[in-house]
Amino acid sequence: MESKRQQKVASLLQQELATVFQRDLPHLFTGMAPGINLVRVSPDLGVARVYLSLLLTGSSEDLLALVQDNLKIIRQALAKRVRQQLRIVPDLVFFVDDSAAYAAHMDKVFGDLHIPPATAADDDAATGPDAPKRPKLFADEDE
């Protein structure tokens, strides 16, 4: 579980990295619009794991390679923005967040399932005289 300080630093880094990507360094991401889904900070506040998503068309591998190539520039721009709040800017480790694609895939899988509707005979069988008895959990339960 994250401490309140970790959560505050993660929130600050998420906001400021978004500003860096959109305002300070938009020339690096021509044709792409990286979004920051989540930032997790280590307990010693030394490492920040940043999960990126790709909002416009493009390859996630290309985005990750571009960010890795310009990591020093991104970290310097971030340091200028958070120098009043943080003593040390954490090392940034970027990952591609594919949770939106996974959620879309799961929606498609669930949408393709064919589940027949229950019939009245099925309902009667579950509550009939041959149905298994529910175990008594407490001594004062009525049957």
From TrEMBL:
Oligomer status and interactors: Monomer. Binds 30S ribosomal subunits, but not 50S ribosomal subunits or 70S ribosomes.
Function: One of several proteins that assist in the late maturation steps of the functional core of the 30S ribosomal subunit. Associates with free 30S ribosomal subunits (but not with 30S subunits that are part of 70S ribosomes or polysomes). Required for efficient processing of 16S rRNA. May interact with the 5'-terminal helix region of 16S rRNA.
GO terms for cellular component: cytosol
Domain of life the protein comes from: Bacteria
Bias-annotated ranges (Basic and acidic residues): 131-143
Stretch list, region Disordered: 119-143
GO biological process, one term: maturation of SSU-rRNA
Gene this chain is encoded by: rbfA
Compartments it resides in: Cytoplasm
Compositional bias per record (Low complexity), positions renumbered to this chain: 119-130
Protein name as catalogued: Ribosome-binding factor A
UniProt similarity note: Belongs to the RbfA family.
Gene3D superfamilies for this protein: 3.30.300.20
InterPro entries, sorted: KH_dom-like_a/b, RbfA, RbfA_dom_sf
GO molecular function, one term: ribosomal small subunit binding
Keywords, sorted A to Z: Cytoplasm, Ribosome biogenesis
